[in-house]
Amino acid sequence: MKIVVLSSHTSSLFWFRMDMMKDFIKHGHSVIALGPEPETNWKTKFEENEIRYKQLFVERNGINPFSDLKTYRELKKFMKEEKPDKIFAYQAKTVVYGCLAAKANGITEVYPLIAGLGSIFRGEGLKNIIIKIIMKTEYRVACNASKKVFFQNNDDKNEFISNGLIQEDKIVIINGSGVNLEKFKPESLPEKAAFLFIGRLIKDKGVMEYLEACKRIKAEYPEIKCLLVGPYDSNPSALQPEALKPYIDSHIIEYVGEQSDVRPYLIQCSTYVLPSYHEGTPKTVLEAMAIGRSIITSDAPGCRETVIDGYNGYLVPVKDINRLVERMKNLIEDQGKNKIMAEHSLKLAREKYDVKLVNKSIMETMGLI
After folding, report:
1. Between 345 and which of 80, 177, 218, 289 could a Cys-Cys bridge form, CB atoms 3.0 to 4.6 Å apart?
2. Coil, strand or helix: which one is 16?
3. Is 186 within a domain?
4. In this predicted structure, what is the pLDDT of residue 310?
5. Looking at residue 45, which CATH number applies to its domain?
């Protein structure tokens, strides 16, 4: 079968969905990946994995209806020409307009993934309320045009049900994007406690809470290493370089920018920290679990799925820097407990989050095996 995988973020397609697309190919199917970044940058990389890549016009964070109409028209034209058998779409705009374009072409085998509800959906204020009303209408239409809809956590699923956006018999829960256990293997803990955050530098990821917590930790434990990995972003809540500069200049954090391979940094930490406000299921947490690291994350949608509080790490209230610092101190001062939690993380990664198990569930749902 010919399968199209849609996203409004090309690098996410390459780094987060490659294992899934490779499994599609292993089972005899062909794959076309659609994303917004230029073909000159990405075509060869995808072709090396036997995947066709085509550029799609989409403004990931824009709210211009004319831009969105252009995205819809491009998708409608593409599907008319390519006639895919099945479509897998994720991220808000490509879910909505991908489903609508498929419906316009009589394609019923559409399988969107709701990989977390973003800041707009959960935000406040008049502008957010208006956008939220529009998004709910769009999601309702998209779900109606879909055969099944994947969710990565129960909070998002319940949000859709309570708002009447989906029929319950269309829902399939999967354990995040999964983690490649052949790539992310157990590694020995460092001799000294160290912390790490990986993610886009946007406020909703809890990066400011992490920076402030590191500031307090370094004041009391100056020998502790606090690492930060991730790119600046175009999101409305993105941090600007000048906001990060004081923490770098005062040696509170070691910032290494965006990295194509995060394993060397995961190895350096004893505890992975993600104080995010909401996620689908955070892939970086799964990767940290797979190499055997304790986790401190928020008691928030998506994040709470990955941690059993006190077992493989700690859950802290959203935006609660005091509790975050307290839990970081707990693990600095009790490395024995940290080691046990790290072992439990690895156990959970193997039993629940193995990408092979996640992909099997997706392919069974899509009728690909």
Report:
1. 289
2. helix
3. no
4. 97
5. 3.40.50.2000
Burial environment of residue 54 by CB neighbours within 10 A (0 to 12, 13 to 18, 19 or more): middle
Confidence of residue 120 (pLDDT cuts 50, 70, 90): low
- Which residues have C-beta within 8 Å of that of residue 253, sequence separation ≥ 6? 211, 214, 226, 227, 228, 247
Structural domain including 243 reads 194-352
Whether 206 and 170 map to the same domain: the answer is no
Q: What is the pLDDT of residues 169-178, one digit of tens each?
A: 999 999 999 9
C-beta of residue 164 within 8 angstroms of C-beta of residue 126: no
Burial class (CB in 10 A: 0-12, 13-18, 19+), 268: middle
What mean pLDDT do residues 22-45 have?
A: 97
Q: How far is CA 341 from the centre of its chain?
A: 23
Using one digit for the tens of pLDDT, what is the confidence trace for 159-206?
A: 999 999 999 999 999 999 999 999 999 999 999 999 999 999 999 999
Domain membership of residue 222 (yes or no) is: yes
pTM: 0.89
Say how many CA atoms lie within 13 Å of 119 toward its Cβ. 14
Q: Which two tokens stand for residue 351?
A: 């039993």
What are the CA-CA distances from residue 327 to residues 152, 161, 272, 289 (Å)?
26, 34, 12, 17
| Same domain membership, residue 215 and residue 164 | no
Domains identified in the chain, total number: 2
Alpha helices by DSSP H, 65-110: 65-82, 92-104
